[in-house]
Automatic annotation (TrEMBL):
Protein name: ABC transporter substrate-binding protein
Compartment annotation: Cell envelope
Keywords: Signal, Transport
Signal in keyword set: yes
Signal peptide positions (record): 1-20
Species per Swiss-Prot/TrEMBL record: [Kitasatospora] papulosa
Domain Solute-binding protein family: 77-440
Family the entry assigns: Belongs to the bacterial solute-binding protein 5 family.
Amino acid sequence: MFYRSRLQASAALASLTLLAGCGLLSDSGSETEQRISVGTTSSPSTLDPAAAWDGSWELMRNVFQTLVSFPTGSTSPEPDAAEECGFTDSSSMAYRCTLRPGLKFSNGDKIDAETVKYSIDRIKTIKVKGGPAGLLGSLDRVETKGDDEVIFHLAKADATFPFILATPAMSIVPPGEYPADRIRDDGKVTGSGPYVLDSYEQGKQAELTKNPGYKGFADRKNSAVTIRYFDDSEPMVEALKSKEIDATYRGLTAEEVIGLEDNKKDNNGLQIVESVGADIRFLVFNPKDPAAGKLAVRQAVAQLVNRDALVAKVYRGTAEPLYSMVPKGIAGHATSFFDTYGDPDVAKARELLSEAGITAPVKMTFWYTTDRYGSSTATEFAELKRQLEASGLFRITLRSAPWKSFQEGFNKGAYPVFGRGWFPDFPDPDNFVAPFVGQDSVTGTPYLSNEITRELLPSSRKESDRGAVSDQFKRAQDILVKDVRLLPLWQGKLYVAAGEDIGGGERALDPQTVMQMWELYRKTSW
């Protein structure tokens, strides 16, 4: 997950304004003494920030604090647990933060500079495969001065480091409850964020209540939040229609979005709001697989995939074709895959295989997850199978697994080809390239490209003007096209559905597309 351009993030926030005018009567008569219920199909894979580089951030943003974060309306990191932060030099090699005074965890433990150092160091020490340690590649060491000053010394220039510190993976945790060398796995959370996690049932729901000791920027407009996790979007939408939940976030299918938009009179006044999205979907090829490890096979797949048909049949206008790993709206976006392969062409694909001495049909297994990216994923992979097999060049077997076991599988290198989604950590092209390359790729499949990791990324990270890094990332995308280790498929739009009684949705999404639950409230009157 990483950054989107400033303008795009602002547009994403602005596009949610329709939710502002909706609301239900509150029993309490107060906007701050109420519980809001939100449904999602994206449940946490972990409760420990040191292991989280996925949708787990949704919960973490609301129960933990980071040194810097994105206050509502901001598209640049600003102090949260910190009182002030900034680079101490012009070369972006040292970043210093001074803590707010009087910070405490929900268990009463004090937060000081050593606590912050401990929290960051354990991420690198534990180094969960596919986890957030990959975000800290530029960090050399963490220094403390006194109780309130933390200095991050970087091994190389990295103008994106403040954005990395703003991710929920960099949440501050109490040393007494989070081991230095292993993940906390007791199903509990101790943080200093806007809410306290009162109870948690994996895959079912999380109960949050306002943290009375919280000191930060969040202006909480409700007193409690229930997050309900659904395996499928259909029961989630039914729960919304029957007012069992107040809003949904992540997981609506194209049919459900269109149904809610077209049948407002029959949906009890439900609101459906579209925002600009930078989330992407792509295929990952495992180079150790006998078939996927052959360049000509990967090239042939790239030559055959019909993104227009995929989007039209499966997503019905709620997504758009993507021809680079950097989506539209982000500096450095290109159409590299289209420029190289053009429209789908069976004859060209057959020629690629023939020239490599590969006999068709090529047998391959494609894996996807059943409960992370919405209910349309199965239909999407069925369409990919249909397209590839219609050429006569491939025989595709489809396999699926729930996210937790799916994640374990791809981190072990068990899948020949698999589908991944990416929700940006921050609005910057770095986040759509860097996480997927290197030995510690977030895909779990190492992708070594010296030009990208040793030249292009370091060069771009010296540039504080993030709009001036297009050349480096266009070159990086040329390399990605040549290797075809990653195959971009589509770029999504983000939809939030809510009852007519809920306000605050226009302010609820930060630039990381993480929902800030404290912005939602039930209106007492129109």
